Amino acid sequence: MKLNIVIIGLSVTSSWGNGHATTYRALIQALAQRGHQVTFLERAASWYEGHRDLDEPDAWSLKLYTSLQDIPRRFGKLITTADLVIIGSYVPDGIAIIDWVTSHAQGITAFYDIDTPVTLASLDDGLEYISASLVPRFDIYLSFSGGPVPAMIEDRYGSPMARPLYCSADLSLYRPQPAEARWSLGYLGTYSEDRQPQLEELLLAPAEQRPQERYVVAGSKYPPNLEWPANLDRIEHLAPDRHAAFYASQRFTLNVTRADMRTLGFSPSVRLFEAAASGAPIISDHWPGIETIFAPSSEILIARSTREVVEILSGMSDDRRREIAAQARRRVLRDHTPEHRARQLETYYSEALNSRKRDTARRRITSRNIQAAEI
Predict the structure, then answer these.
(1) Rounded-to-integer distance, Cα 22 and Cα 14, Å
(2) Beta-sheet pairing, 250-255 with 4-9
């Protein structure tokens, strides 16, 4: 089964303040390696244009467009004839694009909600990139949240088929590297107001309590008036090809989760998989379902307070932390590679296609029965 796949997403060209980019890159590369033809359509935006960190892909196609009208005008035939069309969350003019694509695409259509907890928290009130009334028009709703969430999307919003499709880590980039530990604890992530309290509790406060050690926060969009501890280093942005070396330079790395993701649960971030694939020992805040991704204590360390972080930093041996990191990487290789995600997507496509064929057959039988009764 070799598919012609079109993805309309937020941005694949820039990872600046955009966690979607590495998710898309890993998935698309895996799909291309499995023989599928993939075209990514991205709206040209000034922010991403000035911060692009993706070379021209050689195994798949990238097309930039400048306006909503380009979708039917430039890519109408590509979309209508594709086997699978995926529209991602946060796409500019997403509602209009969804309306057109689901009305004209002949193949299977899917919504890839990379922001599922955020989407579901506001879907009833209205969003710019999808509405509740459009959910049933997709053949598949690909959710970044697992556990009970896909069934809830089906029951509450009428999706004919909702399935989990977590992010993953590109193993050609995210792998262990030899490096001296410069920092006791670090964090990589874009600023988020609802994530900042967790960052302050689990990293900034431990840094203040342990001034003899170095700490680090890497990521863009942090307010300029934020006060950082004197022993904390700030890095504005790291391109993906520098992430593994960054993780290798920390004794532990921190994972903190946005409020909507913690509330909904079963919503691992891409940084979680990337850090584990890089061989970094991870300290994470707690959220429902984290144990379905990594096993607490043996593959990941859970901390709910400054005190618990400090206890880990001060009390855990290097042998123990390295073993936890190795176990987490083995879990990634077993369950969470881009290859796993590509195979999942293929399975979901086949399931949706078979469901459509069954529906078509039932409609034909019903139509023939009606005609026979009329005769």
Answers:
(1) 9
(2) unpaired
Unique residue bearing structure tokens 């997507």: 345
| pLDDT confidence bin for 373, thresholds 50/70/90 | low
Rounded Cα distance, 285 and 274, in Å: 16
133-153 burial by CB neighbour count: b if 16+ within 10 A, else e? ebbebbbbbbbbbbbebbebb
Percent of the chain whose pLDDT exceeds 90: 89
Start-to-end Cα distance in the chain = 43
Q: What is the pLDDT of residues 82-121, one digit of tens each?
A: 999 999 999 999 999 999 999 999 999 999 999 999 999 9
The 3-state DSSP class for residue 65 equals strand
Average pLDDT score, the chain: 95
pLDDT at 261 over 70: yes
Reading the block at residue 177, the tokens are: 């590297």
Q: How does pLDDT run across 154-170, given as a tens digit for each residue?
A: 999 999 999 999 999 99
Q: Name the token pair of 346.
A: 């293929």
CA 24 to chain centre: 8
Amino acid at 91: V
- Mean pLDDT over 332-342 rounds to 98
Walk me through the domains of the chain, giving residue ranges and CATH numbers.
4-167+337-363 (3.40.50.2000), 183-335 (3.40.50.2000)
Beta bridge partners of 373: none
Q: Are 113 and 94 in contact (CB under 8 A)?
A: no
Q: At what angle do helices 318-335 and 270-277 cross, to 10 degrees?
A: 120
* Cα–Cα distance for residue pair 362/146, rounded to 1 Å: 31
Amino acid identity, position 35: G
Determine the Cα–Cα distance for residues 263 and 276; give it in Å rounded to an integer: 23
Q: How many CB atoms sit inside 10 A of residue 250's CB?
A: 25
What length does the chain have? 375
Alpha helices, H only, 34-112: 46-49, 70-81, 94-104
